[in-house]
Structure formats: C-alpha cells, structure tokens
C-alpha cells in the first residue's frame, strides 16, 4: 500500500493517473473530539449524534412498550412487503443491468486507486473477506431451509409439489419441483444481491481511492450535489446509511442467534428460547469486541479466513458424504433453471405469486439493500488495485457460482432426504409447514454420518460468521459516523459493536424475527432510492477517469 495522504487519514494516495475532485472540504472538519476519562472519541457532528441518540430512543421505546411494539412491527412488515414489493424488485433489476453493462463497457478498464495501483490483498484473502461479510449467516440459515420449502411450496411458477398430504411422494413431480425449487433459492442468493453490493462498493472505492474523497456514502454523490454533500444533504444520506446498516446487520445477528440456539438445543440439549438467544448474542458481541480492537488484519481478516476454512470443510463433507452425483445434477439443473426462471422471477408486475414475491423476494431485496452500505464499504476498503471489470466480475459472478454450489450441496442433499423419507421426519415436515425453522440444517446433518461432529462444526461456523458480521459492521458504521475517517478511535467501534448486539436483543424481545424483518424492510425503502441515484453518480465519476 502506498503512503497515506497528508491528513494522515489512511486514505492511500493514488498510484498513477487519476482524475481527483478538488474540494475545500477537509476530512474531519466537522468532527467533535470529546473525552470520557481515558476514552477519546472523534465523531462527526451531527451524523454520530443523531444516529446514536435515535438508536437509544428506539431501544428504550421498544423495551417500555413491548406489547404495542410487537403489533406495530407486524403491521409494518406486512405494509412494506405488500405495498413496496414492486420498488424492491424493479430497483434490483436496475442494479444487475448496470453492473453487467459496466463489465462490457470501456469503463471496465478503470483501475481503482490509479492506473498503476496494485491489489492490497491476494485473491484468496480478498474473496474470503467479501464472501464472509456478504452471505455468511444467511447461507447457514437458509441453505437447507429454502430449497426444501420451495421444492414443495413452489409458489413462483405455480407448480405442484411432489409431497402428498398423506406424506407419500409423487415421483412424476420430483425432478421438475427440485429444479425449480433450487432455482427459486438461487434467485435470492445469486446475481441480484451481489449486484446490489457491487454498486455500493464500486462507488465508494472509486470516489475514495480515485477521487480522494472521504470514505463515506455521501462522497459518491459529489457529481450530483457538489459541495452540498458536506452539508445536510450529505448528513441525511449518511444517517440513512447508518440505520440501514444497523438494522440489516441486526436481522442477521437475530437469525444467527436463533440458529445457534436451536443447534445447541438439538445437539447438546441446551434449553432453547429467547433467553438462550440473548446469551448467544451477548457472548458473541463480547468476542467481536476483541476482534474489533485487533483491526482488519488481526481481526476480521483472520476470522474470515477461519470462516472459509470451516465452511469449505463442511461443504466438502456434505458433498462427498451426501448424494454426490445427485448434487452435481442439482448444480447444473438449478443453474440452468435459474437462467430460464430469472426473468419471470424478476418481473415486478402482473404476477399471481404474492406470497413468494412479498414474503420472500421483497424481504430479501430489502435485506440486501440494507446490508449494502455495510458490505459495500467493507468490500471497498479491501478492493483497492482492482479494475472495474475485475472488481464486478469477482464481486458479482464468482460468489453467485459458489452460492449455487452451496445450495445444490446442502439443499440438494436435504431434498434427497425428504424425497426418500416423505414427510416422516418431523423436522423436515416443520420446515415445509413453517419456513422459519432454524433446525433445517441440523436435520440434514442428523441424516448423515458423523452428525455430532458436523452439527458442532455448523454451530461454530454460525458463531464465527456472527462475529465477523458484527466486527465488519461496527467498522463500517464507525467510518460513516466518523466523517469518513478510516482509523477512528477504537472506543467508537466498541460502542457500535455493543450497540448492534443491544439492538438485536431488543428487537427479538420486542417482536422476534418479524420485528427484525420489519425494520430492515423499512430502512430499505429509503436506501433503495439512494442507490438508484448512486448508479448515475458512479457513471459520471467513471467517465472522467483514465483507463
């Protein structure tokens, strides 16, 4: 990495030719630097103050009015998913088309960091970090659950599932149902979510490394708003980004806590319920604080590599111990069916599959959009030196293929078990009837050799993904609320890592999974509009860059 700029803010100076933006704004000029005993803070005024105080008020109100809060969260989730599903689906399609256009356009040759910049991380570490941050807990929670559910309740295309009401299997419907079930799952974990991440990450990397602006969401809007991004226009953008990140992340933490709690009950007999989930979140948050203090190299990079190692071991075990040839067939049939189904599944209007479109796709797109400031800023921080074409290809296409293989392996194995057993397995039956069942992955392990070992490894992997997400999220929120400073005092990252855990606990108390989904969908609406404008601003920035 090259020497940092004169302000000492750890934004590397460009290598080679770039077209920087001249502005009188100095990073941190609006910051306050209060002290609390030995703790020193460096906070952006007013982004940090409004974000933190609003979050504190939200926590207190939810705890004081728990019963009323639960009803409000249920109403909010239903309202957003049914009234704004068209917005989420349409916007996600725009992001995919925008990214594919950049890959083949002349601007794909623009290098992030300057024409002579070289990558800060090798492919292995880079891919491990972006993948662990982008999909970790979700793949563990939904990798078995969703393919099994969509195989039987094949809502998007109106197909009939192969399981009869009496628990028997209709063999004539199996092949088509499992292919379309996997395709529906892949749709939620493929090009669309990674395109959302790529849009944000590319904009942040371009305007930070090439334009030499602060590493903050507002910087990417400079071509549109000019110096107004340093005023209230930018404040509003960053505050929305903080809330989107916070609630997007706490949704994942809630899912991780539920799955870890269910897994520990299933494997070790640990009492299951809200109290265990709270203890899991508190414990993981404490470990995440250690990682926060250690920084990217000693913390999140190390944990991401551990994640990928454990995930690879688990994936390969299921692949070879499970129905290997069927998994390979599922990979191909799922991928090819996904290519065919992606257009009707992406269509935002004139559809009859309201349950699939609203309860699944609308929530997923809102979730990915809420995660995009967090994942996008994190990917931007570790992606200097890549060309735009290389960046988008790796960030969008390669993780999609890995996700497809993961779903074919875990989901395909579970579907095979279900077809062989019918609905004799109580856990699988619960998965089909209630798709929020966090035991799905452990039910699959229970039908395989070495189930105690694989289930224990699965619990560990969920927890490590949990820690990595909390660490990465606090790093990103801290950067935004520090006015773009990438090396703000550690106390601030500790504050945000603790806040994430508290908000996740409060939402679980105030309404469970529905409360988490309601908040992520609500913040996702506002950030969707911001991202649509961001695409235009990014294109304007790329047009002025040497390539």
UniProtKB/TrEMBL annotation:
Principal subcellular localization: membrane
Transmembrane segments: 47-66, 86-109, 121-145, 191-209, 277-296, 308-328, 365-382, 394-419, 439-467, 494-513, 519-539
GO molecular function, one term: transmembrane transporter activity
Any Gene Ontology CC annotation: plasma membrane
InterPro entries: BCCT_transptr
Membrane topology: Multi-pass membrane protein
Domain of life of the source: Bacteria
Protein location: Cell membrane
Keywords on record: Cell membrane, Membrane, Transmembrane, Transmembrane helix, Transport
Family: Belongs to the BCCT transporter (TC 2.A.15) family.
Protein name listed in UniProt: Betaine/carnitine transporter, BCCT family
């Amino acid at each position: 990495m090259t020497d940092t700029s004169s302000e000492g803010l750890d934004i590397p100076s460009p290598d080679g030719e770039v077209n920087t933006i001249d502005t009188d704004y100095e990073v941190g000029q609006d910051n306050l630097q209060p002290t609390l005993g030995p703790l020193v803070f460096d906070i952006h005024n007013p982004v940090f103050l409004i974000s933190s105080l609003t979050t504190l008020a939200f926590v207190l109100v939810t705890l004081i009015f728990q019963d009323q809060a639960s009803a409000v969260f249920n109403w909010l989730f239903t309202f957003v998913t049914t009234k704004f599903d068209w917005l989420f689906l349409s916007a996600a399609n725009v992001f995919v088309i925008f990214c594919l256009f950049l890959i083949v356009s002349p601007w794909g040759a623009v290098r992030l960091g300057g024409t002579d910049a070289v990558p800060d991380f090798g492919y292995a570490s880079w891919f491990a970090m972006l993948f662990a941050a982008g999909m970790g807990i979700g793949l563990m929670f939904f990798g078995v659950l969703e393919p099994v559910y969509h195989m039987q309740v094949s809502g998007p295309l109106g197909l009939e599932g192969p399981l009869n009401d009496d628990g028997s299997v209709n063999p004539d419907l199996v092949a088509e149902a499992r292919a379309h079930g996997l395709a529906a799952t892949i749709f939620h974990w493929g090009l669309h979510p990674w395109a959302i991440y790529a849009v944000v990450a590319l904009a942040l990397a371009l305007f930070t490394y090439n334009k030499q602006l602060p590493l903050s969401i507002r910087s990417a809007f400079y071509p549109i708003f000019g110096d107004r991004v340093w005023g209230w226009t930018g404040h509003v953008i960053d505050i929305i980004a903080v809330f989107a990140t916070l609630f997007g992340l706490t949704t994942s933490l809630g899912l991780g806590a539920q799955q870890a709690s269910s897994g520990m009950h299933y494997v070790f007999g640990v009492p299951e319920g809200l109290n265990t989930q709270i203890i899991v979140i508190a414990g993981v948050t404490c470990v995440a604080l250690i990682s926060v203090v250690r920084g990217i190299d000693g913390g999140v990079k190390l944990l991401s590599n551990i994640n990928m190692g454990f995930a690879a071991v688990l994936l390969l075990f299921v692949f070879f111990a499970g129905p290997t040839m069927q998994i390979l067939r599922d990979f191909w049939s799922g991928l090819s069916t996904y290519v065919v189904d992606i257009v009707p599944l992406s269509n935002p209007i004139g559809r009859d599959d309201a349950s699939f479109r609203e309860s699944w796709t609308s929530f997923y797109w809102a979730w990915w959009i809420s995660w995009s400031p967090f994942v996008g800023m994190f990917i931007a921080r570790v992606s200097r030196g890549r060309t735009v074409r290389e960046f988008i290809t790796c960030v969008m296409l390669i993780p999609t293929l890995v996700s497809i293989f993961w779903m074919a392996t875990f989901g395909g194995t579970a579907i095979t078990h279900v077809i062989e057993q019918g609905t004799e397995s109580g856990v699988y039956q619960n998965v089909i009837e209630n798709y929020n069942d966090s035991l799905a992955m452990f039910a699959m392990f229970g039908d395989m050799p070495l189930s105690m070992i694989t289930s224990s490894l699965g619990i560990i992997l969920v927890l490590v993904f949990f820690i990595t997400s909390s660490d990465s999220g606090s790093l990103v929120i801290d950067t935004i609320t520090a006015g773009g400073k990438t090396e703000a005092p550690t106390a601030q990252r500790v504050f945000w890592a603790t806040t994430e855990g508290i908000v996740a606990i409060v939402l679980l108390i105030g309404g469970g999974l529905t409360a988490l989904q309601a908040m992520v969908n609500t913040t996702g609406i506002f950030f969707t509009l911001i991202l649509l404008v961001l695409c235009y601003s990014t294109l304007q920035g790329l047009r002025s860059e040497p390539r």
